[in-house]
Design a protein that fits this description.
By secondary structure, this protein is of the alpha/beta class. The chain folds into 2 domains: about 5-90 and about 140-220, P-loop containing nucleotide triphosphate hydrolases (Rossmann fold, 3-Layer(aba) Sandwich); about 235-305, 2-Layer Sandwich (Alpha-Beta Plaits). The chain has helices at about 45-55, 75-80, 95-105, 110-125, 140-150, 170-185, 200-205, 220-225, 245-250, 280-295, 310-320; strands at about 5-15, 20-30, 35-40, 60-65, 70, 80-85, 160, 190-195, 205-210, 215-220, 235, 255-260, 270-275, 300-305. The strands form 3 sheets. The chain has a 6-stranded mixed beta sheet with strand order 6-7-8-3-9-10. Strands 2-1-4-5 form a 4-stranded antiparallel beta sheet. It has a 4-stranded antiparallel beta sheet with strand order 12-13-11-14, covered by helices on one side. β1 and β2 (about 20-30) form a beta hairpin. The model has no long low-confidence stretch (mean pLDDT about 90).
């Protein structure tokens, strides 16, 4: 069975802003029909990477190829990619169909073909019933959908989606994530999804690239990357006033190697569990029983490990040290 074609290959990309190295040695590939989560904390180099890959700026070193076209030919690459930026403007006095027809003509379609394809795109993104409505009357979720339709006007080989579900309610997020999956599968396009919503990325994406301080700290299939999470860590949250007592009580358990204050919201404790401490559920029960017996309120309890969020926090925190 033939492997899907690589629609994007980046090799050793680097970018300087003056003396500061903002992106160093970025290398990854994306296959047709797959969704790649592109992650990193603020300042990690995500925006710089996307700007290079969408030909907004040039790399200072390295190269990339989009559907067989080298980075030296940005005009040709732009005809092969679709982009939904995090923030984008829409003409409020045009209908959704007029908007898509206009962009279809910009890409060389006749007025008739552009309109026919616009109708098809509206159906694809779930706006078939609102194609003749003014864009100014669209809800936030509908604006995101018309933005995705706009990104598909030129039948791209690679689609870049930046925070497509930001600001949507859970139902809207679920529906839009389903649309993203269909774009990859039905169009056989490679999708790069930038998002801060890590559970969403874990559920939707096939592969992931995690950046920190301008360099890749993890990449590969989501299952492989989450396998790097710490398996023997539990997080417990108690009232701030009870942290010291809880830390003492939990450290006294034979199954616990160490208890330290966690990062982020106050009151969290990070417990390192001894691998020889027994079954995970048994250890969890002992932790909870110790707190209950001491009369300590339990505000949060998270057996850690095996989640993309855990890997992300662990790797990006280590990279900053």
């Amino acid at each position: 069975m033939n492997q899907p074609a690589h629609v994007l290959v980046a090799e050793h990309l680097r970018k300087f802003y003056g003396p500061r190295l903002a992106l160093r040695d970025l290398s990854f590939s994306l296959q047709a029909g797959r969704i790649l989560g592109f992650l990193g904390p603020n300042g990690a180099g995500k925006t710089t990477s996307i700007r290079i890959l969408t030909t907004i700026m040039e790399p200072d070193a390295g190269q990339f190829v989009v559907d067989g076209i080298g980075y030296q030919y940005p005009d040709q690459i732009r005809r092969k990619i679709g982009v939904l930026p995090e923030s984008f403007g829409l003409p409020k006095q045009m209908t959704g169909l007029e908007y898509l027809t206009y962009f279809g003509q910009l890409y060389g379609r006749s007025a008739r073909d552009a309109r026919v394809y616009g109708v098809q795109l509206l159906e694809e993104v779930g706006l078939g019933h609102r194609g003749n409505s003014l864009v100014g009357t669209y809800s936030h979720g509908m604006r995101q959908r018309i933005g995705i339709a706009r990104a598909l006007v030129n039948d791209p080989s690679v689609v870049f989606l930046d925070e497509p579900t930001l600001g949507l309610d859970p139902k809207g997020q679920q529906e839009l994530n389903g649309l993203v999956k269909r774009i990859a599968v039905e169009r056989n396009a490679g999708v790069i999804l930038c998002s801060h919503m890590l559970p969403e990325v874990e559920a939707v994406c096939d592969d992931v690239v995690i950046l920190s301080s301008g360099e890749v700290v993890a990449q590969g299939p989501v299952g492989d990357v989450t396998g790097k999470a710490e398996r023997n860590v539990v997080r417990v949250r108690v009232p701030v006033s009870a942290v010291a007592d809880a830390q003492r009580d939990l450290a006294a358990l034979s199954a616990i190697r160490r208890v330290v204050a966690g990062t982020g919201q106050p009151g969290w404790l990070r417990l390192e569990v001894d691998e020889a401490g027994g079954d995970g559920n048994h250890v969890n029960n002992r932790i909870l029983q110790a707190l209950i017996s001491a009369g300590t309120p339990i505000l949060g309890f998270e057996p850690q490990g095996g989640r993309l969020q855990d890997v992300f926090l662990d790797l990006t925190t280590k990279a900053l040290k």
